Amino acid sequence: MISVNNLRKEFKKVIKDPGLKGAIKALFRPRHEIIAAVDGISFEVDKGEVLGFIGPNGAGKSTVIKMLTGILTPTSGSCTINGKNPTVDRKKYVKEIGVVFGQRTQLWWDLPLVETYTVLKEIYEIEEDRFRERMAFLNDVLELEDFIRSPVRTLSLGQRMRADIAASMLHSPKVLFLDEPTIGLDVVVKDNIRRAITKINKEEQTTVILTTHDISDIELLCDRIVMIDHGKNVYDGSLRELKRNYGQMRELTFEADSASRLTAESFCKGLKLSDDDISIKNDKNVFTIRFNSDSMPVGDMLNYTLSLTRVKDIAVKDADIEEIIRRLYKEGADKSE
Amino acid sequence: MNKLRKQYLPFVRAGVQNLITYRMNFLGFIIGGLIYCFVMYYLWKSVFMASGGDTFMNFTMSDMVLYLFLSNVAGEITFSSVSNDIAEEIKDGSIAMRLIKPVNMDLSYLATELGGTAMRTVTFAFPVIIGLEIYRYVTLGIVMFNPINLLLFLLSIVLAYLVAFRVNLCFGFMAFYVKNLWGMGILKNSIINFLSGSLIPLAFMPDGLRTVLEYMPFASMSYTPVMIYMGKYDTSEIIFRLGIQAVWAIIIYGISKLIWVGAIRKLSVQGG
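The joint structure predicted for all components is written out below.
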């Protein structure tokens, strides 16, 4: 369905020295630097698959999405979606895809929301019956009814995002590109949007590529993830596998009765763990211990802590995706050294 | 055709909506244009008085008034902000949202502008033309209005618009390379104002220069329709000039398509 092969995108960047002097220098003798925002990314996506495309900020996710949607032309490498090259015959290609950029909107800003949908109906040449059926479906899943007659500029972020998602799904695209569709939304709206994505994926076998920083988005939606950093592939596989390999970090937070007998050093010494497997931070009486549950089972960790001091409040947390990414990337950096 | 109308009508509507939202802008634009015309009127009046004769380079004062205001009318009708729009959309990245729609880029920009152009034609161009005819009747005592010339003028102004739109489109595509067009825009406008004869009639230029300029695309953008309305051309010359306009419209269309192919490769949408 989607095949990305050694994709690369370079940007030219003007280097400026700081201050007025640097600005004047750059005016007369601009120096350029070529930056590879995307540096040889490859992956495949099957029909009907939901792919989580993740990576830290500035990793090149959006640039890849923009190349896949035909907005940017790759410097080298290729991508084929549904047998088509996005930069060749853009008009035909974009008819088969739906795109949402969480930070932008494709809705007609000054018009009532419903007008945007009638405009899209004409642009995508959707038949009247099909359109009505589709609107009923989207209304049902995304609950647009309450604000469909309001001008877009008066919508809240959550309403706008639901409306944008609906706009991207209106023409039954074969592939849906969602670039941070849940950014800045509350739990209810997130849930709404996830349900819509799941439903359209199950019912129409729509292939979905999703970028997000929200671990629950990935857990609830994605069959597979591709992780990139600094424009390069870091990981490609299922989420379960990733968690098994990298997700063993747990976070123990507690408030000690008295901090007098407890120091970070005492923990390290007492547990005989290497620096990679444990890190401790404390703010007065509140301690946060991050440890690898492979080398130190959670139960043992709790016992040891309780044997040292009386605690008021204690909580154990799973590692979040940021932590996994951090570890994964650190590993990548170590390997390349 | 019906499909085309249905697909691009929303863009026309959005353009009109925009105009209504920013109506003070629109009003300022028109009033500014009128003030400019009157300033030029007094300037040329003093030129005529200083030269001592009734005519100056084959133009009577009433010709001059006609020329000044008609140039402005032509300027209002052929006005195109497409280069600014493209530059703005590239700067804030919203051009991405245009690119993910299965619509033709040039046509969607053209449609967005047509609403405003229609508004300016109805609210400004026609009243000024009526005013000019009244002025001519009052000063000369005879009805000079020639409906055929008006029709030919309209045909010529459509061609002028197509040329002007494409020139601005090409210029707008430069934003793919240079990021900020503002300074270049001022340069472009001064060049066009001078070379198209909207500042000084091309008829006043030295013969050699005039001939060259008359063949350039800039004359097609304002000078040709104005001269046609004024009845300065005979039938064969009118056909010839319309032909030149049409040829330029086609050439610049081709050029804009070529530039687009190169420009889209250069696009870099930052952020988001």
